[in-house]
Amino acid sequence: MSADSISKPKFTNALAKEKSPYLLQHAHNPVNWLPWGPAAVAKAKAEDKPIFLSSGYSTCHWCHVMERESFENEEIAQYINDHFVPVKVDREERPDVDLTYMTYVQAASGGGGWPMSVFLTPDLKPFFGGTYYPPENSGGRIGFKNLLKELDKAWHEDRQKLLESSERSISKLQEYLDGENTGSDVQTEAMLQKAYDDLSSSYDYHEGGFSGAPKFPRSSSINLLLRLHLAWLNREEKKSEADWAAEMSFRTLKAMANGGIWDHVGGGFHRYSVDGYWHIPHYEKMLYDQGQLLWAYAEGFLITGAPFLKDVAQQLAGYVARDLRHKEGGFFSAEDADSYAKAGDDHKSEGAYYVWTAAEIDALVGKDDGSLFRYTYGARRDGNARPESDPHEELKGTNTLFRAFTQKKTAEFFKKTPEEVKVIIERCLKLLLEARSQRPRPHLDDKVITAWNGLMISGLARAGAAFGDDSMITQARQAAEFSYEHLCEKPGQGLHRSWREGERGPKAFAADYACLIHALLDLYQASLEVKWLQWAEALQKEMNGLFLDAEKGGYYSVHTDMEHSVLRIKEDYDGAEPSPNSLAALNLARLAAMLDDKGHAEQAQKIVTLFGKTLQESPSAVPLLAMAADFLEHGKQQIVLAGDRTTPEFQALLKVVHMRLLPKAVLLHADGGDAQTWLGTKNEALAAMQPVSGKPAAYVCQNFTCQAPVTDAAALEKLLSA
């Protein structure tokens, strides 16, 4: 290919003016893509054409496949241009559009995923939808080329029937969504027991995790199980279940970190495992996974004290700081699964950046050390991807590293000491990282997404507090400051969904508010800087004004004045990301306990009641909402530390609190200054809390009734243990 052809693409469409990395990836397709918005709707109406809506994201493997097969095919592109108005949506930038039509696709087909392919009337009512389509008919599946022709024929020959069906589908779907949220009282203890029973029955006793293949990290399920462990630990009749809740969590955390889903060379977790063993992952790395898993590993460490969990968490944070952090503190969204195996290749393949042949390993580290290293990490001469994990044979002959044997087993097999094995493995990993850094890197999606930054801030704040690691708390603080300055219309006000290269994306959605508020509460408890609590309260008011259904309770995912919205949805499922309602309920419950605000507690209870049917029937699908319901009923403890937080005596008290998992408590700081004055206007009990005899003091309160203050760490430890 000549330099001239590279500098002057054959095709350029309207996406070339966009900021989204995903949209820019499609800017030179022969398809005449338009971004989502009024121009596309007006064009569809003026030309009397249906809209072909394609939604995906920049690190989506099958999105890349469909682009290569269909959207770069000039014949298919011409047919799309002649008969449809093609619209591209970055689902990460416009989760409102994606959620609306994914809800339709899932209802119509029983499944979903990306790329999402939906066909709409000019009034934006969907009449057909699916996900990936091969270009030609294959294996009983209609090809995209034939699908386009069939739908164009239906549009011209059966228009009225198609329109009526579309209208009926949306009406029935809205009716179903409204009917799902009729409200039901929740018996908290019975609900928590069912959550435990469901997770226990789905638990994989051999490999950890809560499903077969594909196997996803379920961070919030682990967080819930750890809370059940603590709640039941001192109840004799529940002791075995308490122990098993912790054991399921620990085994899963350990299995993930030993598996190929964990990047043993560079740190960080891949999206999920395509097999049931955690061995072969789908290689993309998402920021929202890193943040939630950091939270889970930190809490696992607080329960078990296992250094292994702390090491994984610190390496995870190190990966994010190295590869996903903007120089001013915000965090980028994701790294792609696909990459070029070497410079000059013209085709990307999944996992190319991460996999190794046995010969490559031996050449880099030496044959003797290579033999030991490959034994430890399951690397075979013929590759370690099973056929069912690699149906397209992209990984043939290569190895994804996973811990096949412990250092102790390796030491026994190779007749070395564990210390010698440790030195060899560390040397090998360092050499592999250096070699890998010379490979073409996967594409980086450098959008800064508010919700995902919130999850990362939360993970860093919680882990930093648990480990006494100030650098993690500093990174969390800097990301919060980035959000305050760059993700808001005015500093701290008018939140936006995303930011890239100096420009903000669309206005924020409910998930963005919920995740950022959650982060600010965690950052306040880690740093005791009251400005984060104040901003959290202000954002909660802003969120209420934009998304709250004040009458029935709960939050709509999209604000009330969002144009072109054909469905009104209140999300409750805690999937790859927390639902905005689950997290909002937990935020409101925590704010109520911190600020003695009954209004927040009532609003949280409304959410729990609204989704009561789901909580009672499928609590394991909404673990964060289950945690919120539990906190509302049992989270009555306030821990107030009074005094100068910079003194060693104060830090000793703070360490006692931070080194324990206290899911039913909130932590507050009475600083004797402006922060305490502000808190005192919200929570009268705090106004009078002072150091004792000049020493920082800890007040442990239940329902705002406090025990006598203590001034030394041992006494506080005893109080919290009781």
What are the key terms here?
Glycosyltransferase; four-stranded mixed β-sheet; 29 helices; 21 strands; 722 residues; alpha+beta; Glutaredoxin; globular; five-stranded mixed β-sheet; 52% helix; 4 domains
Structural account:
The structure is a single chain. This protein is of the alpha+beta class and 722 residues long. The protein folds into 4 domains: 3-180, Glutaredoxin (3-Layer(aba) Sandwich), CATH 3.40.30; 188-337 and 445-634, Alpha/alpha barrel (Glycosyltransferase); 354-438, no CATH class; 637-721, Glutaredoxin, CATH 3.40.30. Helix content is 52%, strand content 10%. The protein has 29 helices and 21 strands. The chain has a 5-stranded mixed sheet, with helices on both faces. It has a 4-stranded mixed sheet with strand order 19-18-20-21, sandwiched between helices. The chain has a 3-stranded antiparallel sheet with strand order 8-9-12. Strand 14 and strand 15 form a beta hairpin. Helix 9 (188-202) packs antiparallel against helix 25 (623-634). The chain is globular. The termini are far apart. Mean pLDDT is 94; it is low at 1-5.
Brief summary of the model shown:
This protein has 722 residues and is of the alpha+beta class.
The mean pLDDT is: 94
Q: Work out the strand percent.
A: 5-15%
**Low-confidence sequence ranges:** 1-5
Q: What's the shape?
A: globular
Q: End-to-end span in angstroms? A: 73 Å
Q: What is the number of domains?
A: 4
Strand order of the largest sheet: 1-3-2-4-5
Any idea of the CATH class of the largest domain?
Answer: Mainly Alpha
Task: Please outline the major beta sheet.
Answer: 5 strands, mixed
The Cα radius of gyration reads 27 Å
- In the CATH hierarchy, the third-tier topology of the largest domain is known as Glycosyltransferase
Annotation, overall tally of beta strands? 21
Tell me what the CATH architecture of the largest domain is: Alpha/alpha barrel
Helix content: 40-55%
The helix-and-strand class reads alpha+beta
Count of helical segments?
29
